[in-house]
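Hi R.,

As promised, here are both runs. First protein below:
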Amino acid sequence: MELRLYSRPFFCLFLLLSTTLISQDFEALQYRTVGPERGGRVTTITGTAMVPGTFYLGASGGGVWKSEDYGTSWTNVSDGFFSTPSIGAIQVATNDPNIVYVGTGSDGLRSNVISGKGIYKSIDGGKTWNAIGLEKVGQIGAVEIDPTNHNIVWVAAIGNAFKANPERGIYKTVDGGKNWEKILFISEKVGFSDLELLPGNPNIVYAAAWKAERKPWTIISGGTKEEGGIYKSINGGKDWIKLEKGLPKGTIGKIDLAVSPVNSSIVYAVIEAPEKERGLYKSVDQGESFEQVSDDIRLVNRPFYYTNIELHPTNPDIIYSNANPLIKSVDGGKTWKRMRVPHGDNHDIWINPNNPELLIQANDGGANVSFNGGKTWSTQFNQPTAELYQVEVDDQYPYWLYAGQQDNYSTIAVPSFPPYAIQDPGRGWIINTGGCETGPAVPKPGDHNTVYANCKGRFGVFNKLTGVEKSYYVGASNIYGHNPKDLKYRFQRVAPVHVSPHNPDVVYHGSQYLHKTDSDGVEWETISPDLTAFEADKQVISGSPITRDITGEEYYSTLYSIRESKLKEGLIWTGSNDGVVSVTKDGGKTWENVTPKKLPKGGRVESVEPSQHDMATAYIAVDRHLLGDGKPYFYKTEDYGRSWRLLSTESNGIPADHNARVLREDPIKKGLLYAGTEFGMFVSFDDGLSWKSFQQNLPVTPITDLKIFRGDLIISTMGRGFWILDNITSLRQDAFVNLKGEPHLFQPDRTIRYRYPKIRDNGAFPKYPRTSVYVDYYLPKKAKEGLKLEILNSKNESVVTIFSDSTSLKSKVEEVEDMNLSQTFRYVTKKLENKKGLNRFAWDLRQKGAWHKEGEKRYKNGPMVPPGKYTVNLSIGGQKLQQSFDIVMDPRVKEEGISQATIEKQLAMQIQVMDLLSKARKLQESLEKEHKSLKEKKGQKKRLDQIDAVLTKLKNNEGAYPQPMLAAQISYLYNMISQADQVLGKDATDRYNELVLLFETINKEAGM
């Protein structure tokens, strides 16, 4: 029997754990983005004519972003409001820039397209949004707002990308989205890619019908004459006629429309059709008749993905065509010239009607603004909407993250923490690592400079030191453009690469077979039979009935995931993109098909996960949304695949439309699972019996891969780049699922003592926090009495104490440049949170600093504590909780030759200098107060002169570039010996002794 039954006591325990977890709040555990900064695919854009610096972009997996400074910076405005990150159309009301409508569901129907979930509306320029219906229509091709009444809105619904659905059609609302009427419908297989309102008369409407559907093995774009074409209404959609004169007479595919704003008689249509009938059509009589004016293939190459034309607002002969490439015509479409943009694969363009030289354009690299009609463009390195297929990490310090980035020219890597100083940190810390957009990129364990990279089945070995990639393709044959049934080796675009956890020289690679090399690809061995279902009717030339499209993305019956058990060499699991799970226990000599019997066939096995706690146990994530089934399929086996248990039932926590993407087991805590879905993160503490949302501040976007490494949860997404949840150690502790009515202090994880390099921190992205020990604690109710957290060193000496009370300032970080010292000081003010539930405090490894007369700067900027064993005490009223933890040396510092003794000797000197600085500042403060009080009294000139003389030696004069006096000189020395872990220089020691003598002299002169 496949589904196992559990005894009543176990079920009762499950209920108890679930009840405990339901009351738990994970908000204290926040993710951070680490980029990359460069944008991903943007499928729709718009501007605001009344506010020319304001633009919106809609990303294919990154949501809606807004710029109010001509594209110089972008801010996400859909997070927290939208239930999908896939954007199909954005429109701003002509007469009110605060009114914005967004249709979800990108119209570029790639295999990784994310489902739409209706229409959203903002009445405050994107600050807040409301869902206003059409949740089931699927992908939305266009939204149009009546220019005379922003409550009248039209929507072109393409439909569900992966199956027929009755919600396809043209919709209209007359009350701002409260009610919708479907006013044009053809069939459950035919939707609408575009619609246009006639300028000057919005009751005249044009709509473009499109039969479109994707299968994992092909693209359907187009149908019979009856299933496609252009429709027109002259009475606000009550009645429709089909326009036919001069248009293609046979098979017809995707269509995009444009109506001239200055001559409403002129209508253009770019049409996907068989060769002689494809291209651009023009009407000069509002669609009564059309004439083909161009059959340039660039207008309709990959039409399911591109197909967008726009007209110049003042000249109907100037036309822009977004495809690959972006081309422009100035003679009504007869001839075309290429326009240069920052990235290829173009999707949309908007031209300011009041200033046609100002425009924004969207492509697979993001959105870019031009002030000069497209001669130059704004950067795309300010919109973190990268689509990433997977995540791998290397073993250097700090570790880097690797992935294939869709539409990048190479795989990429970014750091988890700043590795060194750089002038432009976000952009400068993206490096290329071989292969191409699909990846993966897998760093070799023990040698992070060697990266095994893939490009659509082409295996390479990239050397980061030389920047050169060696090519070792299995089969050495170009597989593009083939019928997959004729291929010797079928590779998916995202062909898996996996390095053995037992031998870093052994690499596995998947076609329909499992391939193995121990020579960096110089020689390959095939160690399996065909491990896929290989159904003959799925082995077809992709792209029908018009446009052939064979890039490997639709190659079905290929391996999609590979993992070797860390517990046993030769125990290897594979998953195919047509639903087959296989296992070998002997390194490939024999194989078993262990696909779950109740798993519906044909899904994509996105991940296989051998347990790190039990050899017979494994987990899989299977995605069937490309077959029109959005249910999540997460399974577990405990007997090498002979039987499986479904972990994602209808009622155990993961919504039924959150198709599965990835499932990983915690390597430390058995039964702790992390699941990534199409629309977010989930966690299970009971081995998949129940799930809790683990989204927190993570944006809604597909989770494509997960890694748990050095205590961090590392995530790749299809639209928002990489994210890291630092330090998940508390989740692994037994107390986490047994929290009751008592406070609890979790044991902090060990912390690597990284120093933060001197870089410009603009507070945007990526997010790189200072090194911290994360102290997690649970409060059963809000603490009315103040909390106190104290850190003690191994000698039981207090290092730092932090309080929580209602009168404290809010936590903040401030960097202040002191021109007198030519140095920048970082002041951190943090308080303990006392809210009910889980709380987290990040201690920055700094102990108490020098005294300062300003309260907010007092005792800040102290030295970093040395590596060693520490204790944290948390006092809650009369109750005291205690845990121990370790701080370890940065391995790079150790490799440099710096010892523990060196760091401790340096710290002793820092404390001495800091104490001297405190004395000097307190003396200065005391003298200034005395001076102020004596100025009011007679007969105090001698004392006042004495104080003035001392103060001139203690503090700097006012004005620019004063001579640094004693207090500033001590501060200078302190900062000199606190920037790095280092052997103390003799000059620093000698200077300290000089400053001690100077202080003693000045102190005597002050009569103190």
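And here is the second one, sequence first, then its structure tokens:
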Amino acid sequence: MPSRMQKTIDPLSTPRRATSLDRVSGVVGAASDGIVRAVSSVWFLVAVVVVFIVGASLMAVMQNYPTVYDEDYHVGIIQIYAGQVSPFIENASSYLGFGDLDRFGSFLYHWLMSFPLRAVDGLGFSLFTQVVVVRLLSVALFASSVIWTRALLLHLGVSRFVSHLAIAVFLALPLTSAVASTVNYDNLAQPLGAAFLLLVVRAYTADRIVAGRWWAVLVVGALACLTKFTFLPIFAVSLVLLVLRRFVWREGRSIGDVWRSIQWPRRRSVIVWASIVAGALVGAVFAERYLGNVILFGSPAPDCGEIHSDAYCSTYSVWERNERLEASHDADPLTVPRAIAFLSNVWIVQMVIRLSFFGATTVTGREFTQGPVIVQQFILIGSYTVLVLAAVVLVALILRRAWQPIIVSGIVYAVFIFVRNFSEYSRFGEPIATQPRYFALFIPILIAIAGVVIGRVIASFYPRGSMVVKAVVALCVLAAFTQGGFAISFFAFAEPDWINFGSPGAVLFDVLARLARLIIVG
């Protein structure tokens, strides 16, 4: 006799028929699973990158020269390099309007881009065509950073679903297409920076020191610094952490044991020797420029006025502007209350607002827009959500070994940029260079952190339907892209005088503009 607590099964009973609610639930579950699988697929990311490249390339082909972000300055330096082979500019003081070029550390992008520019120039093409070629190469360089960013996020333990969605959101920001379609050294700094962080994390989490990997860290980090000097704090902090991890926090092993465990290249092949020689050359250039600057001027990036005469430096518009602002403003004290006020009321606000910020140079000057209101609201709410969620889990992340170099170098870099911006604000009386593009390397990482936190919350409170919620989130994000993501904001808000109608691609502008305005709500 079965007990009262046991269920009896009647072999003659018929199974319960599936209700319409069950069928709907099954369809929803299958659809949700399919959406999540699709986003997790590498083909989703490929599609996103293609959309980004197409949009940014159309902007590159159509926009007037020069665009914002000091494109004429960067093109001018590239043209100077196009007249020589050496990365060291000859008779640099004879070139007016560019500031210091003798000890300028951020020159790698300009030197590399001089080779395609001189090739196009040699074929007799116009300056605009030369600029368009460099713009398109810059789009390709920026897009290549996705490879390293994805590998980095996956190595940090972020799921493919969150990693792909985070990268897609980053590429969809109007700022990203605006920067990528411009001749600017940020477009080389982005892939080099992502590759460097990936190499550092792999070296930091490895069981032993792999000599080739550490060599790659040094070379790629030096190349990133030679592309943009603001990468120096990330480079320095990462190297310090690697040394501490292996030679100070040795987990009970002696330094001798650590040294004997180093994995050296097994064969001295041509590739190994070529890597050693190329790395040594990069190191020599890095030392000549940055260590030389420290020895000669006490700073890795000295001011133009410390190297050249005021008459020469005043031909550089940025230097002249700073001198004029400083002369007309009594420096404010660098106090903690003022720093907090600047952080909350100016710095963070401008960093967030300018994620949707783009513009153009016209015959009447520079014109700017923040794009559709709906995009501004998405970015405003999303940015503060990401920052709050990242701050909440900061301690938990820094306890994880793989995240330590990312978190520490990111914090030091943010402090470096903030202190630089705050000191200039105190000297000049207005914010200078408070640009979110300086944080482009860390933006997809921050978005991924927020995605992980949201995913954990969903799984905790709604475990059975977490897949459905993930699918809904993904669909909402994809729908939001249509409201000004990628290059859509540009075409919806660009004025005709922003466009060079001598460009073959400009014939599409009217069609794309009408289509973009039709898609955007409001």
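A quick note on the second one: The two ends are 71 Å apart (CA to CA). Let me know what you think.

Best,
J.
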